[in-house]
């Protein structure tokens, strides 16, 4: 059997999963954090029961493992100067630990790439032209695409014989109709610059939609689903006829609902107003919108939902941040129910969606009038695939842990 590696490279981190394919068996997985620093953190899980990674941060700065597995764990703190050294260290450690005997056992490497623009509506084998386009799309996802491209090049250097595949977060959303992806701007900006909505998290939305159909015992093409990818980066997607109909993130992953440090939707005039009065450059303003807003900016204390929930009873700012987070999600859900003419199921996934019992409850409690009824006992779980609505609920609520790595590995196999 072939071994396939699924890779998610961040600006200072590298998350990976090694799978036996086509059996879809996870052999090892791990993360290297703080790349470029003298105290980079390496964690690798392997063995008979590999524990699942829980990624609460889209940029992968705070990744932990679930606690219920029985696999072995390797940990180390050392200086790692760049992604090339990180990948070299990781591959060598996989051999040292006996997980693989030789690098050549890895016959395919699938890379998560955030922005594919209109060039890519499906996963593709990487060549020079593909890499050039990924580089050119850096303006669409400046926090992600450069790191994704860096990871691809580093792996190609060390595993030149392995099939290299790019799996785009945006490709799933290329099925959106024009009325949903175009902005009300002069049309020439779309034709000249590709100014439109692209969305993100498509690999996650695609995976949980497929699993939802399996859980409901129905053909995906017959369902109307709303999938909630709620983590440090958060997006909501309306899925009809098995395709993305609409999604909350826009031209970049900055738009949409309130996120950990990202503002989500903001009136552009307000952005200009603040820039003028604060004397901020465009880069400085974008940095505020991307890294100092959202839950962090509203609460003034933390970007982590867990911290805010712990103190919301005594901290007004924390309570307000949580309320706004829920409020924005509800607005998008209501919009998408109207767009699709109803909904069969609402799906929770990603760090907050999978693990925050009170957030799921708060969202579903506001949807009772749509026919969603919460089973409180079923909802009292973390990271488990389960229906959390009552048996007689007209609209189903599902908790489905995402598995982007598996989707990436499947796409690699399909292109071999």
Describe this structure in words.
With 416 residues, the protein is an alpha+beta fold. The chain is built from 15 helices and 16 strands. The chain has helices at 83-96, 128-136, 145-158, 178-181, 187-193, 202-216, 268-278, 282-291, 294-299, 305-311, 316-340, 350-355, 357-365, 376-379, 404-414, and strands spanning 2-9, 13-21, 25-33, 37-46, 53-55, 63-65, 72-80, 106-113, 124-125, 163-168, 224-230, 234-240, 243-247, 345-349, 386-387, 396-399. The protein has an eight-stranded mixed beta sheet with strand order 7-4-3-2-1-8-10-9, sandwiched between helices. A hairpin with a 7-residue loop joins strand 5 and strand 6. Helix 1 crosses helix 3 and helix 10 (305-311) crosses helix 11. The model is unreliable at 54-68 (pLDDT under 50).
């Amino acid at each position: 059997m072939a071994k396939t590696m699924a890779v998610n490279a961040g600006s200072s981190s590298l998350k990976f999963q090694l799978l036996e394919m086509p059996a879809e068996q996870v052999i090892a997985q791990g993360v290297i954090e703080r790349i470029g620093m003298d105290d980079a953190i390496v964690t690798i899980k392997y063995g008979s029961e590999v524990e699942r990674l829980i990624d609460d941060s889209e940029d992968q700065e705070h990744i932990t493992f679930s606690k219920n597995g029985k696999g072995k764990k390797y940990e180390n703190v050392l200086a790692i100067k760049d992604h090339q050294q990180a990948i070299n260290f990781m591959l060598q450690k996989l051999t040292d630990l006996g997980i693989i005997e030789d690098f050549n056992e890895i016959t395919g490497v699938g890379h998560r790439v955030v922005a594919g623009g209109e060039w890519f509506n499906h996963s593709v084998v990487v060549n020079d032209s593909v890499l050039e386009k990924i580089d050119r799309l850096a303006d669409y996802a400046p926090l992600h695409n450069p790191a994704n491209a860096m990871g691809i090049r580093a792996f190609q250097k060390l595993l030149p014989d392995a099939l290299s595949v790019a799996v785009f977060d945006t490709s799933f959303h290329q099925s959106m109709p024009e009325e949903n992806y175009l902005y009300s701007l002069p049309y020439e900006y779309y034709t000249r610059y590709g100014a439109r909505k692209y969305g993100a998290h498509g690999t996650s939305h695609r995976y949980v939609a497929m699993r939802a159909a399996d859980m409901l015992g129905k053909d995906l093409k017959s369902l109307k689903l709303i999938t909630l990818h709620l983590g440090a980066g958060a997006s909501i997607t309306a899925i009809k006829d098995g395709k993305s109909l609409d999604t909350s993130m826009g031209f970049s992953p900055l738009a949409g609902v309130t996120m950990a440090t990202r503002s989500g939707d903001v009136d552009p005039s307000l952005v200009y107003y603040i820039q003028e009065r604060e004397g901020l450059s465009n880069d400085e303003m974008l940095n505020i919108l991307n890294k100092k807003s959202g839950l962090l900016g509203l609460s003034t204390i933390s970007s982590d939902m867990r911290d805010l929930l712990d103190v919301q009873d005594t901290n007004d700012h924390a309570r307000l941040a949580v309320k706004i987070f829920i409020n924005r999600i509800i607005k998008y859900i209501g919009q998408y129910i109207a767009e699709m003419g109803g909904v069969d199921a609402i799906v929770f996934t990603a760090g907050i969606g999978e693990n925050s019992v009170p957030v799921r409850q708060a969202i579903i409690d506001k949807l009772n009038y749509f026919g969603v009824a919460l089973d409180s006992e079923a909802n009292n779980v973390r990271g488990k695939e389960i229906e959390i609505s009552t048996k007689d609920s007209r609209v189903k609520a599902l908790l489905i842990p995402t598995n982007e790595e598996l989707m990436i590995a499947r796409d690699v196999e399909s292109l071999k």
